[in-house]
Amino acid sequence: MILKVQITATVEKVKVLMTKMNHSLAIVLTLFFGLISFIAALSLGAADISFADVVSSLLASFSAEKEASSVLFFERIIWELRMPRAILAFLAGCGLAVSGLILQTVTRNPLADPYLFGISSGASLGVVISIVLLGSTISLVTPVAAFAGSLVAMLMLLMIAGRRQSQQVESMLLAGVALSFLFSSFTSLLLYHTDPQAVTAVLFWTMGSFSRAQWDTLWFPAIVIIGCVIVMLAYRRQLNAMLLGDESATTLGINVNRFRLIMLVLSSLITATLVSLCGGIGFVGLMIPHIVRFFVSQGTTSGIMLTALVGGVFMIWVDVLSRIVLENQELPVGVITSAVGSLFFLSLLYFRKNKA
Amino acid sequence: MACEYQFLNTSNEINSPKQFSDKVSEDQTELICIQHVFWHADKQLILDDISFTIRKGSFTGLLGPNGAGKSSLLRCLYRYIKPDLGSIKFNQQDIWQHYGAYQYAQDIAVVLQESPSNFNLTVYDVVALGLVPHKGLFTREEASDKDKIACAIEQVGLSNKTQQNFEHLSGGEKQRALIARAIVQSPSLLIMDEPTSHLDVRYQIQVMELAKSLGITVIASFHDLNLASAMCDQLLVLDKGKLVEQGTPTEVITSEMLSNVFGVCAKVTTHTQHQVPHISYFYGYDIESSDNSDSRESEGTHD
């Protein structure tokens, strides 16, 4: 009870602070915390590298001076392993949070999540098919197969949602859930007839990981996510207008059905890209928009940008946790996000119940 | 803060119905012209040969029992549904052929019963949505836009609640915030679908006086006939999809109309202060058997 009062009081204090504070300042502070988190992500892990070493290594990379061999060793860990990983984690967090925000807004359903629409299940089916057909998890084939599976799921969803325009939201949600189960059943069927090693590989893949992050593949999620965020910022007014209801949004000049389909494509593209590179990472798209919305109105440009930034920073720390919780072993990212997400959900229900 | 924006050269001076009527009579130009509109849904004719005109600057009330087709007619007007037959002209131009969706939204604002989903939008955010038809994708909110929004919020008396969560407002305040959004849209026609439903008497009068004070053309559907009689210059009565009556409140609000369209016994007198028809309903009368005789015998009735 005391804890609840304290949490409520703290939230109210932060809300008042955020209202008084310029939203731009909030973005700057989040960016600053993001930078600290980024350095922490480069520092923490199986090989412990101090903050000072990380900073000197980053600075050294901009100078032509040759360093000692130990520093070169750290540099290799930082630049070749941790840096692409931290960047991918940040992009994944941004993308999933923004994707969740889009879906929650256009469906006016606070429970909408990028994984609710069968995109992840489609990706899993793609991966399983590639493993069954090619017999192994070839590094390049897996993300391509996952992306193809996600696109198939997305196209099927668009066909169903596009056809029944009068009840588009309901169609989208129900079709998403139905497709998700359909793909899962095919996946299970294929796994049932494949060898146990492949089952383990698929299982690990579905739980999510940033271990496959590489410099030469990072351009793809970067372009997709930055591009989608720019489009979303451009459509921010239309997105907010969707919250008024379909009819009111129409009176503001918005072609509601077409706009919803565009946003669905955007969200699906982000999810498909991330699922293909990182596997299944649930709950982030659901949780982050709710947390940010608690403090900042999503009706503003800064609200959208903060959602993306908070998602990115959150995912950096999830990745750090996944590397340091178990000694010499990596915990799947999806395990941490699901655990945190479930606790978040339960606390949300608890607070809402008490509020009512 | 002093408001710099006024609507179509009108101001809050127009307060009483009489003053408003005088103003309207100066400008007789048609703003809306509906001709032979038919619309059906699920094989049922919802709008059956509707024709009428609305003058610029007038306040038109749409009356009728539940299911008469009021909302469907308004939906046709704000381009949410396309009639099967007939034409709807706005400023002498067909609304489907001549106007694009955004262009039409720049001229017509609509206040519906829909309330924004609870996504922690502030009053400011909701009011700012009035800019949607006027802003391009990459255009930013300028200082003049912010002034316009602040002015609209001030006009509806919500200046002290600008940053408050929309969901936490009372019913009347929500309706006023939605009217502020419509004000930001800078329309020449405001359409309101049952704007006073769920509001108590005080808020009903407040919201209607606010809509009237804007000085723009307004068309609104009503269930409160006395309120419609007091506020409107022109009334349209729909019954089973047909336009059965149209004219001034004095011409339209009669015991006969109330009996035929709404199936109620009522006495219509003249409001002593506003000089508009005032309805007193009788309870416990069976309209079919009593044949409405009692209600139409009193002195001062309008039938």
Radius of gyration of chain B, CA atoms, in whole angstroms: 20 Å
Largest interface: A-B, 28 and 38 residues
Chain oligomer state: heterodimer
Average predicted local confidence, pLDDT of chain A? 82
The name CATH uses for the topology of the largest domain in chain B is Rossmann fold
Under CATH, the homologous superfamily of chain A reads ABC transporter involved in vitamin B12 uptake, BtuC
User: What is the ordering of alpha helices and beta strands of chain A?
Assistant: HHHHHHHHHHHHHHH
Straight-line distance between termini of chain B: 49 Å
Overall CATH architecture of the largest domain in chain B: 3-Layer(aba) Sandwich
The outline of chain A comes out as globular
SS-derived structural category of chain A:
mainly alpha
> How many distinct beta strands of chain B?
12
Low-confidence spans of chain A: pLDDT under 50, at least 5 residues?
A: none
- The DSSP helix count of chain A reads 15
Summarize it:
Chain A is mainly α. Chain A has one domain: ABC transporter involved in vitamin B12 uptake, BtuC. Chain A is built from 15 helices and no strands.
Descriptive tags:
heterodimer, A: 356 residues, mainly alpha, ABC transporter involved in vitamin B12 uptake, BtuC, 78% helix, B: alpha/beta, six-stranded mixed beta sheet, 30% helix
Q: Can you give a write-up of this model?
A:
The complex is a heterodimer of chains A (356) and B (303). With 356 residues, chain A is mostly helical. Chain A has one domain: ABC transporter involved in vitamin B12 uptake, BtuC (Orthogonal Bundle). Chain A is 78% helix and 0% strand. In chain A, helix 4 packs across helix 13 (284-295), helix 6 (141-163) runs antiparallel to helix 7 and helix 6 (141-163) packs antiparallel against helix 12. Chain A starts with a helix and ends with a helix. Chain B has 303 residues and is of the alpha/beta class. Chain B has two domains: 17-120 and 187-252, Rossmann fold (3-Layer(aba) Sandwich), CATH 3.40.50; 253-303, no CATH class. In chain B, 30% of the residues lie in helices and 24% in strands. In chain B, strand 1 and strand 2 (44-55) form a beta hairpin. The interface between A and B is medium-sized, with 28 and 38 residues.
